[in-house]
Amino acid sequence: MAEVKLFGNWGSPFSCRIEIALKLKGVEYEFIEEDVYNDNKSPLLLKYNPVHKKIPVLLHNGKPICESVVILEYIDETWEGPSILPKDPYERAMARFWTKFLEEKCFPPMKQASWSTGEEQEKAKEEATELLKILEGTLSGKKFFGGDSIGMVDIVANFIAHWFIILQEITGLELLTHEKFPKLGQWLDDYLSCSIIKETLPPKDKLTASFQARIQAATTSK
Amino acid sequence: MAEVKLFGSSGSPFSRRIEVALKLKGVEYEFIEEDIYNKKSPLLLKYNPVHKKVPVLLHNGKPICESLVILEYIDETWEGPSILPKDPYERAMARFWVKFLDEKCFPAMWQACWSIGEEQEKAKEEATEFLKILEGTLSGKKFFGGDSIGMVDIGANFIAYWFMLPQELAGFEVLTKEKFPKLNEWKNEYLNCSIIKENPPLKDKLTALFRARFQAVGAAK
């Protein structure tokens, strides 16, 4: 029986984060696919995450840890290997701050800009642009948010590098471009070139098909 | 010049968290009161350009923002009683529950205080469900942190003042001794801790603040 299990979903950026972190640390784990989008969650998932009933859930020696950012910190504290968070307390605080900024500020309007239309979409696009400008500023003189190698903020920004870029292509949205955001554009290229990232991100065609199906379902239900 | 400065507001449960943590660690600091409802200082806007909020901790000239991020920074920087446990699994549990407080409990409880009619009823139901979950985590424990206060207790400080006081003033009953015996006991133990007792938030000031807000909400109806 595997010591480390991860309850996740192939298409979820949140469970993908955990896979990236486990691979970075060289930890072997068993991946348990949860059918979350069809509301078909397993009894085990509901047992291990009764509060939120969500993936990802990391099970280590039978003990569950929930909430992706909490899991990332746990992984960093539990296993040797490349650091996910910096060592210096001030730099750690900065990494935590920017992770929170991504999750609480950036992602909602970026999602909204992808899935909405009309005035709602325009408003979301403006908001997302302002936030991306702030993010762009933090990359000054750095290859990754984590410095020379990927760290917590880069891992959490997986949504931008893959899910958002694909949504942009499907919808024709041009929010994050190399022209408007040269540093973020360069970060995208470098990030997607990392071997661990390349082997862990879900296949682009599968994700594209999944998004297109969702868009169609949303259009037909109106 | 003080090495440690805290930009905060005596009416804010978030800046209060930082004061509790600094006092726990025995760190001397200069408190800079920000008039967050009317006029934020240029320094605050300089040190927290992204969110423009309190609290902001300034340590050796470097600003740290977001209360939970500051709490972790304080724990990693200064010796003294631990804010987070040492064991990684227990640390994960503490982080999980403080996130639950901030993302689920606090918004619902705040809404229950300040909304009216159907919106308030819905918020009260939601807050009650979340409080039931929280009540369950206190089984066999004096504090969320165990025998002494920790991150989750510090995070839950808003329950002790910023929820109980409006509840009393407005006369609604969500967190009662009967419905939540463990949380009620926790509240008493928490308020009885020397660190908390010696440095209570200004109850009169908070009461006046809440009364003014209730009036404003009432006038806007």
From TrEMBL, chain A:
GO terms for molecular function: glutathione transferase activity. Keywords: Transferase. PROSITE patterns: GST_CTER, GST_NTER. This is Probable glutathione S-transferase. InterPro entries: Glutathione-S-Trfase_C-like, Glutathione-S-Trfase_C_sf, Glutathione_S-Trfase, Glutathione_S-Trfase_N, GST_C, GST_C_Tau, Omega/Tau-like, Thioredoxin-like_sf. Residues 2-83 form the GST N-terminal domain. Its EC number is 2.5.1.18. Residues 88-210 form the GST C-terminal domain. The keyword Aminoacyl-tRNA synthetase does not apply. It catalyses: RX + glutathione = an S-substituted glutathione + a halide anion + H(+). Belongs to the GST superfamily. HSP26 family. It comes from Forsythia ovata. It comes from the Eukaryota. Pfam families: GST_C (PF00043), GST_N (PF02798).
UniProtKB/TrEMBL annotation, chain B:
Residues 87-209 form the GST C-terminal domain. It comes from the Eukaryota. It catalyses: RX + glutathione = an S-substituted glutathione + a halide anion + H(+). The keyword Zinc-finger does not apply. Residues 2-82 form the GST N-terminal domain. InterPro entries: Glutathione-S-Trfase_C-like, Glutathione-S-Trfase_C_sf, Glutathione_S-Trfase, Glutathione_S-Trfase_N, GST_C, GST_C_Tau, Omega/Tau-like, Thioredoxin-like_sf. The keyword Transferase applies. Keywords: Transferase. One of its GO terms (molecular function) is glutathione transferase activity. Coiled coil: none annotated. CDD domains: GST_C_Tau (cd03185), GST_N_Tau (cd03058). Its EC number is 2.5.1.18. It is an enzyme of class 2 (transferase). Belongs to the GST superfamily. HSP26 family. This is Probable glutathione S-transferase. The lineage of its organism: Eukaryota, Viridiplantae, Streptophyta, Embryophyta, Tracheophyta.
